Amino acid sequence: MIDDAQLLEQLQSKTYKEQAFKTLLTLYKERLYWHIRNIVKSHDDADDVLQNTFIKIYKNINNFKGESKLYSWMYRIATNESITFINKNAKRLQVSNEEVQQMAINNLTTDVYFEGDAIQLKLQQAIATLPQKQQLVFNMKYFEDIKYKDMAEILETSEGALKASYHIAVKKIEDYLTKN
Q1: Quick count: other Cβ atoms within 10 Å of Cβ 88?
Q2: How far is CA 17 from the centre of its chain?
Q3: DSSP string for residues in 60-91
Q4: What's the rounded Cα separation, in Å, for the pair 98 and 96?
Q5: In this structure, are residues 102 and 122 in contact, taking their beta carbons and an 8 Å threshold?
Q6: What torsion, rounded to 10 degrees, do the Cα atoms 59, 61, 62, 63 define?
Q7: Where does the RNA polymerase sigma factor 70 region 4 type domain lie (predicted)?
Q8: Under 8 Å CB-to-CB from 105, ≥6 apart: which residues?
Q9: What are the residue boundaries of the structural domains of the chain, listed by start?
Q10: Hey, what CATH class is 117-180 in?
């Protein structure tokens, strides 16, 4: 099994870049898909954002300095691409980011790729009421079980701030679920 240092070396070499990128796709495509899907909600949108994410990774891999883990860097790109996607949709539809999120959740019931039940739909509605940063932190911790240390690298903030955000998000979600 190839480690990140070897993979990065190959990704940054002209000779092995294509093959190394295929390996990168195999290793990270599913994890990044679900990370993006938790943010944008729709399968089709997640596929589009995932494609944009990998294009950006491919184009910018030579700029990666190794100051963070490779997957943290890729998650940061995926997160930023997801937020950019939501912002563009909000601007295009002339609505707020929150309204875009709400529309995406309303569309989950017709999404053939959504396998959730009424409880999971209610949880998604509760998450959508959170500010964007709390949504990110909650999704990364609750659904992906990402460690605070890694999350701090991805979101470029302190572990303490993330723990506080997660705690507040959980309280807000509990309140929402109790009242709705």
Answers
A1: 11
A2: 25
A3: HGGG--SSS-HHHHHHHHHHHHHHHHHHHHHH
A4: 5
A5: no
A6: 100
A7: 121-173
A8: 41, 121, 124, 125, 128
A9: 1-115, 117-180
A10: mainly alpha
Q: What's the rounded Cα separation, in Å, for the pair 67 and 80?
A: 18
Axis crossing angle, helix 43-60 with helix 17-40, rounded to the nearest 10: 140
Do 1-115 and 117-180 come out as alike in CATH topology? Answer: no
Residue 14: how many other CB atoms lie within 10 Å = 6
Q: What's the distance, Cα to Cα, between the start and end of the chain in Å?
A: 48
Q: pTM (2 decimals)?
A: 0.80
Q: Are 105 and 124 a contacting pair, CB within 8 Å?
A: yes
Query: How long, in residues, is the chain?
Result: 180
Q: What is the rounded distance in angstroms from the CA atom of residue 12 to the CA atom of residue 18?
A: 10
- In tens, the pLDDT along 95-125 reads 877 777 777 777 766 666 666 677 788 888 8
